């Protein structure tokens, strides 16, 4: 009986690990261009995972232009 409970608990824990939060697609990792530049990222194209519309002040699809 105890081994069945242990097995069930292990299964629940292992399954829960697969549901870890992940970054939302389209969300830029940088809060602002100062942060992006400090990490060496400038001229970030809209096709990049690092791009965010809040980093594109003139709306041309390039964030944190140098």
Describe the structure in brief.
The protein has two helices and two strands, in the order ααββ. It has helices at residues 2-17, 33-38, and strands spanning 44-45, 62-63.
Keywords:
66 residues, mainly alpha, two-stranded antiparallel sheet, 2 helices, 2 strands, 33% helix
Provide a descriptive summary of the structure in words.
The relative contact order is 0.16. This protein has a two-stranded antiparallel sheet. The chain is globular. The protein has helices spanning 2-17, 33-38; strands spanning 44-45, 62-63. The chain has two helices and two strands. The chain has a domain at 25-66. With 66 residues, it is mainly alpha-helical.
């Amino acid at each position: 009986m105890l081994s069945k409970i242990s097995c069930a608990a292990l299964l629940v824990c292992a399954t829960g690990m697969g549901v870890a939060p992940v970054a939302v697609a389209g969300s830029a990792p940088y809060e602002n261009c100062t942060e992006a530049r400090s990490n060496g990222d400038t001229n970030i194209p809209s096709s990049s995972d690092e791009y965010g519309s809040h980093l594109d002040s003139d709306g041309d699809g390039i964030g944190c232009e140098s």
